Amino acid sequence: MRTRILVVAPNFRIGHGPSNALLFIKYVPTESTIFYTSDKRTSYYFTDSKNVKLISTTSLRGLTHYMLSHVLRDLADRFSFDYVVTIAPEYLIFLPPRTLKKTLAIPQGFLEMAHVRMEFKNLLNVGYHVSLLETYRVSKNVGALGAISKYMYNEISRRLKPRRIALLYNPVREEFFANAKTLDGKAERLRLLYVGVLKKLKGVDRLISFMPEVLREFRNAHLDIIGEGPLRSVLEKEVRRMKLDKYVKIHGRVENGELLRFYREATVLVSASYWEGFCLPVAEAAAMGIPSVVRAVYALKEHVELGYAEGFNRDDPYEFLKALGRVLDNYEKMSQRGREVARVLYHPYKVAQRVVAVLKELN
Known about the structure:
By secondary structure, the chain is α/β, with parallel strands linked by helices. It contains 15 helices and 13 strands.
């Protein structure tokens, strides 16, 4: 398949969950791929892909997505692409029907009650709802929709009733597979790792609140928290108030090499998130042979069902501890299972194969 593809990802950033949905693109055999993004700093990922050309929208910042949509329409008309691939359907509102029929859109999530409970203030933003409606409208008219999890597959089918839908999964960067190794769940020090945004929806505060009970069971336990967000200062104050400074460390955002080091040193990845459409860090951990403990809701349940994560449901430290105990009791088996599943489902090359099959159906 030698084709010309336009990839629309205005806020593309390597390591960011939604952006990672497009990492398969360098494995798709194309004559040329135009990658429409706002940040050329991510171009390092494509340095060995001569067919991928990045067009930066940095000079267009300040323009509304309506204006950027006009730019996209002109771009599509000028180059006569065979296909369009996007994680941002709202930017396609001015593309003609003939182009939309050759488009694969990969939605990253839907509005759920968890968002209403945890992020109500954000939902008061009128622009958010306008963008949501446009996403729905465009998604119903594209040639195919890709799902990043079974949960998303079911929601897309129910809400949008698409012409075509395929279960693709989100890719994990190759360096996580390259660093995969068998870790010792019986290590002297239990190192828990959280990676993600520091906001209420992610339940990071619950992980901190669990630590006193974790420390009663594992005296040398430690929780590393990687990420930035609106709750950082609140979480840091809570760590000090609970006198957990020796056991909980909030590192903020770290560079890629440093992130891999944290993964390598971790015993178990943990997430108390109240909603996920996929949860990239759990998949990254699986690729490296690191089991997870997660809140068993939405797409997080699938990681439990796939056998490399254990789940808890309530904000109860004892339920969390039981899940953690099950992981440590079955550590080698879960570590091996994670690596096996990740190679089949999450490697960018494997995802690319599924994407190519979908695009061929759009002819």
